[in-house]
Amino acid sequence: MLAPSAHLAVEGLTKRFGRHTAVDALTLAMNQGEFVCLVGPSGCGKTTALRMIAGLEKPSGGFVRSNGQDITALPPSERGMGMVFQSYALFPNMTAEENVAFALASRARTSRARAAELLELVDLASLARKRPHEMSGGQQQRVAIARALARAPRFLLLDEPLSALDPQIRARLRNELKLLQRRLGITTLMVTHDQAEALAIADRIAVMREGRLLQVGSPKEIYTAPADPFTGEFVGAMNLLPAIIESPQSVQILGRLHLPLFHGFDMGTRLVAAIRPEFIEIGAPTDNSAQATVAAREFQGAFVRLSLSLEGLDRLLLADIANVHPFADDGSAVAVRIPPEHVRLFRAA
Amino acid sequence: MRPRALKAELLAPLLYCAFLALFFAAPLSILAIRSLTDAQGALSLANYREYLQAPDLFQSLVNTVWLGVATVCLTLPLAFLFAYGLERTRIPGRGFFALVGAAPLLVPSLLPAMALVYLFGRQGLLTPHFGGGTIYGFAGLLVAETVATFPHALVILRTALSAADGRLYEQAHLLGAGRARTFLALTLPAARHGIISAAFVVFALTIADVGAPKVVGGNFDVLALDIYKQVLGQQNFDLGSVVAMFLLVPTLIAVLFERWAARRQAALKTSRATPYAPDANMTRDIATFFACAAVGIGIVGVLVICQLAALVRLWPYDLSLTFDHYRFGEFDGGGWDAVTDSVLLSAATALFGTALVFGGAYAAERMKPFRLLRGLYGVLALAPAAVPGLALGLAYALFFNDPANPLHFLYATFWVLLIANVVHYFTVPHLTSVTAVKALDPEYEAAAAISGRGIFSVFRAVAVPLSTGALAEIALYLFVNAMTTVSVVVFLYPPDFKLAAVAVLNMDDAGDAAPAAAMGMMILYVNLAARIGGSLVLHRLNKPRLHEAMLVEAAA
After folding, report:
1. Domain termination residue (choose one: B322, B338, B366)
2. Phi, psi (5° rounding) for residue A141?
3. Does a structural domain hold residue B42?
4. Which of A200, B37, B177, B373 supports an S-S bond with B181, CB 3.0-4.6 Å?
5. Which residues of B touch A76 (CB under 8 A)?
6. Are residues B433 and B369 in the same domain?
7. Distance (Å) from the alpha carbon of B265 to chain A's nearest alpha carbon
8. With contact defined as beta carbons under 8 Å apart, do B390 and B210 qualify?
9. Angstrom distance (rounded) from CA B146 to CA B150
10. What range does the domain containing B447 cover?
11. pLDDT band at residue B47 under the 50/70/90 scheme
12. Which positions in chain B touch A91 (Cβ < 8 Å)?
């Protein structure tokens, strides 16, 4: 089961709303100082899971443990957690300093100095007297972080903290967020629906779908070795191609390409072959290539993404090629080769 | 969540439900039981039988319905035109028109009726010019109720017309639809819920009004006046209760419909709608301007006539000016005390009512435990709008006058007036509060909970400061209504606590029409002062923040 040393752990965490199971037996362990992203499409239960960990929702089952101690029944304020909400939930009638001090009020005398210290920590000392509407989205986010840190929490919970921001500053702010987390060394769990954000920022990613945890791993593991077709498609772009087993060492895809692959599946099992667009090879026809027509081209800057139509494939095959590639006019015929070393096989659903 | 906070969270919804059960549901049940109790104290329909068999009482039922329908037919087109002028044209002076259109809210409903009497009554200024015929009866009631209900219809229709989506009109224009077609295909259908709900509200207000029938009703008897006569004149509480029950039904239907229409109206608003900006159209604007001006002159005329009548020595024979009618102490109405008592009661209603209603709405929307109880409160809080003031007043009289009631000590005190006013005007402030609370970020309480601060800290430090606008609006609404209402308090006021609106009624009844008008205008001036004072305070409260926000926007 779980390592006893896990800093923050959830075991079988479940939330049911009537007959609907929003979170289904979620089990996840985090180490000291780790930055974990809980990622999945909207409605997959990730925010509900976060709120149960924070103590804002009562779980229908399962446990939350902090350093091995069961904290499932503790009120939110006694779990040693700070939380940044999607909307930031800053109080618009209070200054940055007052917002932070609100979380300190039981120790009113020292709270001013402590609030100033926290704002200093997020580089906002100069804006202490400003109200939220006088700040940029990024500055508001830092006030929210300062307030979340006010009670010296052991864990920081972030609920889609970047989704309220413009795309341009999002990339910069996720970097700042990561740097701040490193500097503080605080164990952080962030919920996001943006897989690119998770890949960029997380030490480890936990992928959720329909209330269930599908895979946990480093961004590289998740990207290069997705545990199922859904994860593959959700994190980055992925081509999913129907495949047939020819022999224990060979798989046929698209009815004409034979891939020499060792696999553990029985004969006759229906498979899905997954390959990312950047691994598709376009070139001169060979005896193991398929004819395709370029249906559309998207210029992406560093590369060009081709949408290729192939006989026998009801969806378009995506292929990323260098932006100087000569074979890339619309309607032109190309030969597609699938390098077997980049193909992952899954049992078809 | 500390244990103390938790306990209070459990208590708040309970206390609120108990309050409405005790001061709303219980008195009304007593009213219903009383109407169903015969002379021997047994449950029966005897009172209803007696009522329906008495020819003159049945006639007033017919009269009431007829008056209600006629008032709807007259008020609605006028209010629609006026609302259209305010929301859909570029006529000049829209702010002024809006103020004038709302003015009848600031006076007791019998003031327009009194103005009619001054013009077309037995000693009317204009009566001789119209062949000597007087306006008492149906015609007078129709005009008086139209003026009195006009602002209520106006509020609803303005909301309905202001919700237009500009994109639809641009689209209609691009598709080549003419003005008439656009109006019939877009404007009217979008406003139809508002129109229907305004019709119900006007109907309900008209049939429940006691002031105008008293002043200008003549021999045209209506239900509301019957209750008044049965109870105050003949001490016949049984028949009074029956009539009150008859009044309740149409009001209930009106409220149910109004809620339904409001929900439909809200659903029509999509977040992507762009506000409608009227285009330049001279023909439309000139026509609408004169129509609005005519209505506005009518309303201002009513008020001016009342003020003049209050200031002349003997209307209409000696038109020299005097302040004699302001010596309220010389007339049987309660003197200047009636004004100060009314201000005291209205201020108390505003203060206590605002705190109570906003707290209740916050508890119902934001506290977690007792989902069922909070839902019940949401329903209970809507119910007072469905009960006419006269019915509630009678129910209170029956409930608190019973010596067996442990709350009997409240009977005929300031406190029962205060509670009756708060309960009677509960619904609109509740809905305003709910809207204000819903506008707050739903995560405030969660953010506070993680920070170790309870829900009451959020209420005190965040919810209340952020809702000052709504709170001021609610306080003003309660103040103005408590100043003008007759129906709620007429059966309840203690002998030593006179109220201005009741004094208007009583002085007019006693033939002291000029002091009655003077008192009525005092109510207008107090309400105007409250409105203006309220806006000034709000303006000052919001100013620095607004100013800063503008600076930031300018810098960006």
Report:
1. B322
2. -60, -40
3. no
4. B177
5. 1, 446, 449-450
6. yes
7. 28
8. yes
9. 6
10. 1-37+328-556
11. confident
12. 444, 461-462, 466
Residues B358 and B389 grouped into a single domain: yes
Same domain, B164 and B193: yes
Spatial strand order in the sheet of A69-70: A20-30, A8-17, A61-66, A69-70
Work out the average pLDDT over B4-30: 84
Q: Omega of the bond prior to B27 within 30 degrees of 0, cis?
A: no
Nearest to A77 among B452, B462, B465 (CB): B452
- What confidence tens digit (pLDDT) does each residue in B339-384 have? 999 999 999 999 999 999 999 999 888 887 777 888 888 888 988 9
**CB A58, CB A74: distance < 8 Å:** no
Cα B532 from Cα A15, distance rounded (Å)? 53
| Phi, psi angle pair for B486, to nearest 5° | -110, -45
pLDDT of residue B525 exceeding 60, the answer is yes
How is residue A278 annotated by DSSP? G
Tell me how far apart the alpha carbons of residues A166 and B500 are, in angstroms, rounded to a whole number.
59
CB A122, CB A145: distance < 8 Å? yes
A106 touches chain B (CB under 8 A): yes
Identify whether B50 is part of a domain: no
Asked if residue A343 lies in contact with residue A261, where contact means CB atoms within 8 angstroms, the answer is yes
Say whether both B309 and B373 belong to one domain. no
Element (H, E) at A99: helix A96-102
pLDDT (tens digit, 9 = 90+) per residue, B387-403? Answer: 999 999 999 999 999 89
pLDDT digits (tens, 9 = 90+) for A170-184: 888 899 999 999 999
Q: How many CB pairs under 8 A join A and B?
A: 72
Among candidate residues B298, B322, B346, the one where a domain is terminated: B322
Q: Which two tokens stand for residue A298?
A: 């998207």
| Segment (H or E) for B375 | helix B371-382
Residue A30 corresponds to which tokens in the numbers above?
A: 């985090």
The CA distance from B422 to B480, in Å, is 12
User: Is A105 at the interface with chain B, CB within 8 A?
Assistant: yes
To probe the interface with B, which of A57, A88, A127, A134 has the most B CB atoms within 10 Å? A134
Is residue B276 domain-resident? no
- Taking the CA atoms of residue A93, residue A98, residue A103 and residue A108 in that order, the dihedral angle to the nearest 10 degrees is -130
pLDDT surpasses 90 at B478: yes
> Do B392 and B251 meet the contact criterion of CB atoms below 8 Å apart?
no
**How many C-alpha atoms does B428 have within 13 Å on its Cβ side?**
15
Q: Return the number of other C-beta atoms located less than 10 Å from residue B139's C-beta.
A: 17
Are B134 and B258 members of one domain?
Answer: yes
Question: B186, B165 in Cβ contact below 8 A?
Answer: no
Average pLDDT of span B101-130? 89
Give dist(CA A346, CA A275) in Å, integer. Answer: 11
- Cα(B92)–Cα(A342) distance, integer angstroms: 73
User: B47 in helix, strand or coil?
Assistant: helix
Sign of CA dihedral A164, A168, A173, A178: positive
Q: Are residues B366 and B316 in the same domain?
A: no
Most distant pair of Cα atoms in chain B: their distance: 80
Nearest to B447 among A85, A105, A134 (CB): A85
CATH code (residue B246): 1.10.3720.10
What's the ipTM? 0.84
Q: Is residue B190 part of a domain?
A: yes
- When divided into structural domains, chain B yields a total of 2
Average pLDDT for A34-57: 94
Residues B311 and B342 placed together within one structural domain of the fold: no
pTM of this structure: 0.86
Same domain, residue pair B377 and B449: yes
For A183-233, write each residue's pLDDT tens digit.
999 999 999 999 999 999 999 999 999 999 999 999 999 999 999 999 999
Report the C-alpha gap between A193 and A38 in whole angstroms.
Answer: 8
* CA-derived radius of gyration, chain A: 24
